[in-house]
Amino acid sequence: MRPALASALMPFVRGLDPEGAHELSLRALNWGLAGRERRPDDPILAVQALGLSFSNPLGLAAGFDKNAVAVLPLMRLGFGFVEAGTATLRPQVGNPRPRVFRLEEDRAVINRLGFNNAGLEAYTANLAALPRPLPAVLGANVGINKDSTTPERDYPELYRRAAALVDYVTVNVSSPNTPGLRDLQGEARLAAILDAVLAARAEMPRRPPVLVKIAPDLSEAAMEAIVGTCLDRDIAGLIVSNTTIARPDTLRSPQKREAGGLSGRPLFQASTELLRRVHRLSRGRLTLIGAGGVENGETAYAKIKAGASLVQTYAAFAYGGPAMIPRLKRDLAARLRRDGFPNLAAAVGAEA
Ligand SMILES: Cc1cc2nc3c(=O)[nH]c(=O)nc-3n(C[C@H](O)[C@H](O)[C@H](O)COP(=O)(O)O)c2cc1C
User: Fold this and answer.
1) Which residue minimizes the CA distance to atom 19 of ligand 1?
2) What share of the chain has pLDDT > 90, as a percent?
3) Which residues are identified as catalytic?
4) Where residue 192 falls among pLDDT bands split at 50, 70, 90?
5) What is the pLDDT of residues 66-75, one digit of tens each?
6) Structural domains of the chain, ranges and CATH numbers in brackets
7) Ligand 1 near 313 CB (within 6 A)
8) What is the distance in angstroms between the CA of the first residue and the CA of the last residue of the chain?
9) For the chain, where are the E strands, in sequence order?
10) Candidates 10, 241, 242: which one to mutate for ligand 1, based on the most atoms within 8 Å of Cβ?
């Protein structure tokens, strides 16, 4: 790929407003400027999970393509799956700008976007317009509007409308930027929401699996309650994790005091430890997707050994551009072979 085009796809390069640069990168993707990975994935990277076939375990995390405007070009970069969203029932402007901050020295991002998105109508129209079959697995990530008082009605409605169009649906109850949202991770509230979503699912002709995306800032007891709530029901898996409201002492960037959710390198350790604990508790009965500081083969492999069957990235992709995808996959395959694993599944939870 030509360097100019590659850098057009790096939203967090120095000197550009991060949100404006992000919008530009989505446009560049749609103009076909992002390039395309034509080499087939190494068979050692194939994953069977959630009743689906992934040609590799690397996914694009939610929030990059909130309105599903660049799903196909993103898939063509070589991701094994793309999670579009978060979509809410009604369009929403989100918080005032600036609301995305680069922490360059820390290879991190703080965002307080607040579910800015074009709403479910536009989202589903974009998903419906995609050519099928798609070259990778497609997930929908759904959330509630800031002013919603009816999550037990909203999430099932979001599920119903997305079900025909995607391969899995993630219930997002962990963004730190919608007031009160993370309280929905509490046992009774979460149980009520998931029961309502699963009831809606039972009535659909097509029933994509349901995942729950959790925050990294949960107490041990809260995490145990969530795992129990999911295991008691037909929940397929968990995404561990969303961004953190914590500010590790190691942060050096001047922007570290901005309010919002922190992601990228400084999130790696906490989110991987949480993943490990969730894996131990669920003993393989939930499919886990590891997110938080995945930036290369080493960090992806660490998530897999902690219990993830799949991983997702956002910040490192935003910093590194599309070239990080083939590099990560190549390095991960080499690590699996070096350690004698016949396939990726054999390494899942190897160090949990
Ligand atoms: C700018 C930005 C926007 C995000 N928007 C969403 C979102 O809409 N929904 C969601 O579930 N997660 C969202 N996330 C969280 C990511 O999906 C991911 O869980 C988190 O960034 C950790 O991964 P990373 O360390 O690789 O960035 C967002 C992250 C960033 C940086």
Assistant:
1) 242
2) 88
3) 175
4) very high
5) 999 999 999 9
6) 3-347 (3.20.20.70)
7) yes
8) 38
9) 47-49, 52-54, 58-60, 81-87, 100-103, 108-111, 137-142, 168-172, 210-214, 237-240, 261-264, 287-291, 310-313
10) 242
